[in-house]
Amino acid sequence: MTAPASATLGKEARSKVRRSDHADWVPAPDRDPIAILEAQERSRVPELVPIRHARMAASPFAFFRGAAAVMAADLASTPVSGLRVQACGDAHLTNFGAFAGPDRRLLFDLNDFDETLPGPWEWDVKRLTASFAIAGRERGFKRKHRATAVTTAVASYREAMRAFAGQTNLEVWYARLDVEDELAKFEGEVDAAEEKRVRRNIAKARGKGHLRALDKLTKKVDGELRFRSDPPLLVSVDGLLPPREAAELREGLRKLVEQYRETLPADRQHLLDGYRFRDIARKVVGVGSVGTRAWILLFTGASDSDPLVLQAKEAEASVLESHVGASRYRNHGRRVVEGQRLMQAAGDIFLGWCPAVGVDGVQRDFYVRQLWDWKLSADVDSMSPFAFEIYARLCGWTLARAHARSGDRVAIAAYLGASDSFDEAIAEFAEAYAEQSERDHEALVAAIDAGRLEAEEA
Fold first, then answer.
1. Where exactly are the structural domains of the chain?
2. pTM
């Protein structure tokens, strides 16, 4: 489609769904967020589900992080422009962060794609902005500071999308946020203590790699490297299964590694071939993901001082699927990988997928990536309102860049326009949904207190 035709499409969409319509939030009469969580948990590891409940019960924001399925159901009844992108599906503010690019520069980007699927671009924007409203409430920020963060995120998204609409495909594809470059822009603007804290966290992230994983997660057993056990969050295969079955699982995993290897480009296959598989353990990760099967795999090169630690994480159907249609990929691990490759500026060099048969004999889908590679998450609890606003700006730009790579950026930009009409509408929605999430969190706590759900601190 030509740029003029796309611009016309965007303006026509605006005539059908006004930008101000996005302010609306009316919960369905039969809405039951707890039932949605229970349905989602039926396929999960039963002994881990109480940990999920405990983590989500910690605060309204913790609940929101784990309730992507709840919000997807809510968003399904809200107005949409009809313009679709490769959506993240869970674009809340802590699913953005920094990690090492292949050129070893620290990049800021989306970093969680478990729920990715083609869908309305507005849903990602609404989940992102609602997360700022909820986190701002939790931090005790005044309403005006929360509103500023939300409108900053939306304005950043809108202005970036309008800029991308005027760029070539390659310019959009190569666009990225370099952490050091962005930090330099705000030097002198942020509080000195805050800047020092960010730089300290960056230095810490650079030390969070495979050597750190080797030191923190492994030990020697009869001369062999093995994962440590720290039940229930980290359990070696020897702690999960009898010796014979554990040995069989390790041997069977070699075949699965071969299947995963085939999903990598030829040069990455060559790189992986330089490593030898050593051990596997189950690791509990995240908030909403708790209960899905997540394994960490240990490999070493010519010596034990050359480690590679991969994470194989179960991929189920996206929470968006029942609202926007099934994925084109039969393997949900591939769905995650292909979505991540489309949305991220630079991806993990070991990103791939494979099916795997569990100890219960059930085949499941997995995607594979490096466990730690300079990963840095936002320390929201220590942010000032000004830093919160800066972070919102970065997230808004990053989300627009991700959407511009897959969707009709000209049409979306034309829909958004130059005014702040959409920004103000989303600010109203975000605050209303923050109140809804607080009520949902109260419902979760009540369900735990009533014995409907079991919760257990890990």
1. 3-207+379-449, 210-370
2. 0.94
